[in-house]
Amino acid sequence: MGQKLAGLFVIGAGFIIQGLVTISGIVSARLLGVEGRGEVALVIALGGMATQLTLGGSLANSVAVSLADRGVRARDGLRHLVPTWVGLGVAGSVPFGVLFIFLHGDPGATYVWWLGFMVVMMALQGMGFRLVTNALLGESAPMNRVAVATLLPQALSTTTLVILFVAVRESTALVVTVVMATSLAIGLIVSVLLLRPARLPKDDETDRVEGRKLWRMTRSTYVSSIGPIDGLSLDRALIGAMLGTAALGLYAAAIALAALTSTLASGMAAVLLPRIAGAQRDPAAEHRLVVRWLGATALMLAVVGLLVAAIAKPVIEIAFGQEFAAAVPIAYWLIAASALLGYRRILIAVLQGRQRGGSASWIELALTPVVVLGIVVAARMGEPVGAGIAMFAVAVCAVLALGVAVVRTAPSRRVGRHARGVPIAAARDDD
């Protein structure tokens, strides 16, 4: 029953979040137009890329698995690592702010530099938010706390943007990004307060997660946790750089609808990962768990994908406006691609829980250049819809390859430093 309730919670929260994201996309498009919407999309894409490449990707997943495996609270197990993470987060975010200024193509404008600064802020807050929400999952926090942490930032952002639209009707990309960053900061603060109180005094090292072991796990699952096929927003960054912010505005409008399925699947994968890791000592129970989640997720994504495709044209033309009509064919391809890419997240969670995250990493690594090549070809043809076709083709390949990997693996039977999937050389670092 607990697993069913967790699954229902994730599905419901995913629908709410994506509904809020869609409303935000519509309102920001009305506030900014195609060009301004593209600027905001580039800020979000680069901020998300920085989050995934640094502390918000593999490390966040490793935090959830480590806390669940050890049965400790986040404040007891992780607080000694926070100062190091803050320094690494700042160092990892600044280059992406500079990259925004370069990609925008107008470094002489003051507002472009401010938008670059917002990339840095959103990246830092994104890292913190991912780490804290995964810590909540890892310490088995009540689902009502997870719900508040997950929903609050987007709810604040959407509400503020709607009020702004009603009040002024027009705005700038900088104002919209400030609203989003402020909402995320508030959500991060509240999420930290929702963590369980420390059980031990600060100088007690009993429950501390060892930094080297955590980083070793992070390295072994780095690529598969990032999910560079779609997790780095490579498609949006390349479209913005090669076709301009107007084309990116169309693509972003299509993504606003298409991302519903991948958002749902990503949430389910986050819940599934610590469950798979904790079930490794009982192969039969683990197999039943995997079969149930794979079947339920496939059915859910198929139904939701078809429903979204059915309403895509009227929603885009009515909600976004006729100037976004060219986004409709892009949306059809991205809806199909998003469903498959979301399903791949579930397959990756299974492999990571079985200590076989390295296999998933190699598959992701092999397919990432294909994404780049497909987007580059589409950009040279001047057709944003080609990017959607490329994403769909890569998604099909990813699901097939990961599906074969899942079938060929089995529960690792034990979790620890010598569990399968962790390189022996890495294990010896602590010897």
Description:
Pfam families: Polysacc_synt_3 (PF13440). It is a multi-pass membrane protein. InterPro entries: Poly_Biosynth_Transport (IPR050833). It is found in: Cell membrane. This protein has helices at residues 2-53, 58-70, 74-78, 82-104, 110-138, 143-168, 173-194, 211-220, 222-226, 234-243, 245-278, 283-320, 327-353, 357-381, 384-408, 424-427. By secondary structure, it is mainly alpha-helical. α1 packs across α11 (245-278). Mean pLDDT is 81; it is low at 414-431.
Which short descriptors sum up this protein?
single chain; about 425 residues; mainly alpha; about 0% strand; globular; cell membrane; transmembrane; Polysaccharide biosynthesis protein; transmembrane helix; Poly_Biosynth_Transport
Secondary-structure blueprint:
Blueprint: H1 2-53, H2 58-70, H3 74-78, H4 82-104, H5 110-138, H6 143-168, H7 173-194, H8 211-220, H9 222-226, H10 234-243, H11 245-278, H12 283-320, H13 327-353, H14 357-381, H15 384-408, H16 424-427
Helix pairs in contact: 1-4, 1-5, 1-6, 1-7, 1-10, 1-11, 2-5, 2-8, 2-11, 4-5, 5-7, 6-7, 10-11, 10-14, 11-12, 11-13, 12-13, 13-14, 13-15, 14-15
Transmembrane segments: 7-28, 40-60, 81-105, 111-133, 145-167, 173-195, 293-312, 324-341, 362-379, 385-407
Subcellular location: Cell membrane
Protein name: Polysaccharide biosynthesis protein
Number of helices: 16
- Gap from first CA to last CA: 42 Å
**Helices and strands: which structural class?**
mainly alpha
**Overall pLDDT level:** 81
Largest sheet: none
Following the backbone from N to C, one meets helices and strands in this order, namely HHHHHHHHHHHHHHHH
- Fraction in beta strands: under 5%
Percent of residues in helices: over 70%
- What does the radius of gyration come to? 21 Å
Low-confidence stretches: 414-431
Give the overall silhouette.
globular
How many strands appear in the DSSP assignment?
0
Keywords: Cell membrane, Membrane, Transmembrane, Transmembrane helix
Protein name: Polysaccharide biosynthesis protein
InterPro entries: Poly_Biosynth_Transport (IPR050833)
Membrane topology: Multi-pass membrane protein
